[in-house]
């Protein structure tokens, strides 16, 4: 059974950095593409970044050059390094496995000075 637990969110100042983590269990983590999504209040959930099982990455234009997605298959953990954070990055961030309908509880990122 797929289980994903996001953590690392919190309050960050504009221009600051934050690293999100997603602990995965219930499946062979290294075999699957993984994604980070986010949902801001009143907006639809959007894809932020993805990483394939082989390590290829994709970024939404809005975060390209600022965010870095990575994975540690030995720890069954997905990461999202967020740098140069902007107010518009404030949202609940979710990780998700490809070919799964499971969504974790997410982790809240608040951007404020």
Question: Low-confidence stretches at least 5 residues in length (pLDDT < 50)?
Answer: none
Rounded average pLDDT: 96
Largest sheet: 6 strands, mixed
Give the SSE string.
Answer: EEEEEEEEEE
> Going across the major beta sheet, what is the strand order?
2-10-9-4-5-6
In one word, what is the shape?
globular
Number of helices: 0
Question: What does this molecule look like?
Answer:
The protein has 113 residues and is an all-beta fold. The protein is 0% helix and 49% strand. The chain is built from no helices and ten strands. The strands form two sheets. The chain has a six-stranded mixed β-sheet with strand order 2-10-9-4-5-6, with no helix packed on it. It has a four-stranded antiparallel β-sheet with strand order 1-3-8-7, with no helix packed on it. β5 (46-51) and β6 form a beta hairpin. The protein is globular.
SSE diagram, text form:
Blueprint: E1 3-7, E2 10-12, E3 18-25, E4 34-39, E5 46-51, E6 57-59, E7 67-72, E8 77-82, E9 91-97, E10 107-111
Describe what is shown at a glance.
By secondary structure, the protein is mostly beta strands. It is built from no helices and ten strands.
């Amino acid at each position: 059974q797929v289980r994903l637990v996001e953590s690392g969110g919190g309050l960050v100042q504009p221009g600051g950095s934050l690293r999100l983590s997603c602990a995965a269990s219930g499946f062979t983590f290294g075999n699957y593409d993984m994604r980070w999504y986010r949902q801001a209040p009143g907006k639809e959930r959007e894809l932020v970044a993805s990483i394939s099982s082989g390590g290829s990455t994709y970024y939404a234009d809005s975060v390209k050059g600022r965010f870095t997605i990575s994975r540690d298959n030995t720890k069954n953990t997905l990461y999202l390094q967020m740098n140069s954070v902007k107010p518009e990055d404030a949202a609940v961030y979710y990780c998700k496995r490809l070919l799964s309908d499971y969504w974790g509880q997410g982790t809240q990122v608040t951007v404020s000075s």
